[in-house]
Specification:
Blueprint (H helix, E strand, L loop, with lengths): L1 H19 L2 H8 L3 H14 L7 H22 L3 H9 L1 H31 L5 H18 L2 H13 L2 H9 L4 H9 L10 H14 L2 H14 L6 H31 L9 H12 L1 H34 L13 H18 L6 H27 L2 H4 L6 H27 L1
Helix pairs in contact: 1-13, 2-8, 2-12, 2-13, 3-11, 3-13, 3-17, 4-12, 4-13, 4-17, 4-19, 5-6, 5-15, 6-7, 6-14, 6-15, 6-16, 6-17, 7-15, 7-16, 9-13, 9-15, 11-17, 11-19, 12-15, 14-15, 15-16, 17-19
Length: 419
Amino acid sequence: MIRLRFLRRWKTRALIFFAVVGPGFITANVDNDANGIWTYSSAGAQFGHMLLWTMIPTTLALIVIQEIAARMGAVTGKGLSDLIREEFGFRVTFFMVVGVLIINFGNVVGEFAGIAGSLELFGLSKYITVPICAFIVWIIVLKGQYKTVEKVFLVASFFYVTYIFAGVLAKPAWLDALVSTVKPPPRAMFRQPSYLYMVIAVVGTTIAPWMQFYLQASIVEKGVTRRQYKTSRLDVITGCIFTDIVAWFIIVACAATLYAHGYRNVSDAKDAAQALHPLAGDYAYILFAMGLFNASLFAASILPLSTAYTVCEGLGFESGVGKGFREAPVFYWLYTILIATGAGVILIPNLPLVKISILSQVVNGAVLPFVLVFMLLLVNKRELMDTYVNSPFYNVIAWGTTIIMIGLTIALFWTMKAA
């Protein structure tokens, strides 16, 4: 009888979890987009295991920051840019929205570059594949209901396991990789502009500003309330841990192959896959290429969606996948324009896509503190959050992340100036 009651309780909890799961897991996994894969590949190729130590602190920071966004969405029933506009005024919100729009456009271009590059590995021309994929991305959101779109995104999230397999097939030095995960490199490394640049890029791609806006908006659209908050929290934590495990394996795979064989310059994620081919074999190459295509197509759907949420909430327009084109015209037009222009840019010959991709990740890292300051001021307002304000531990982690990112950005510009 007791066993039956125990099983029923766990069955109920499992049903609640699967009803709420989605926003946290999806948002965290889109983090490993084409720009992210290139950044992690470049980190492994240039510095071997010397950036693995960033994975533990960034995972902890990612969990805390994502949980804050999810909690604010569940408690207030409003998106992040909506709350910023209500609490800090239209002018502040307008400049923040413009900044996010510019950054995200660079990210969207990077996603379509990933789509083009991954399919070129299989001999397919970008002039055919990019327009087709752009249409698929557009139609999924335009014609699908929220639940349908979310299911498609969840399925895409699980394809990231290909990078874990690729990492194993690369036959890395496991002991050295594990030691480097808990042991930072010598202090002299932090005086190198290229190393600092990559640290900021890794953190910037792991904890991107757009993620907070998308997660909170999707929590609101899914209808998650205070009652489901604990289950939603588990969704966030699971997603954050999974996405950084994938990131760890990408760095390890490239360290074991590219770095170990003196291949330092990875021009893009496609280049990383090509370099893996002779070093790690056909399977690792195919898995890496398939993972890149999935990640790029997935993120090419989410990033324009996140941008549309941010702009429409911040400026007071109707938004949401659950609404039709007539109900939310600005939302859908913005989504359409971002996809069309992002895909169109990729078709321009000889464009420096790599510089655009890595620069967007560094700018992500530099802009992140400003977004975090808004989030922390909001989540600690008792009249807004009631008993759901931040704990001292959460404030220490979140404010610490903010201060560290500001410090890293200043240090980067200082060392670049000195160099």
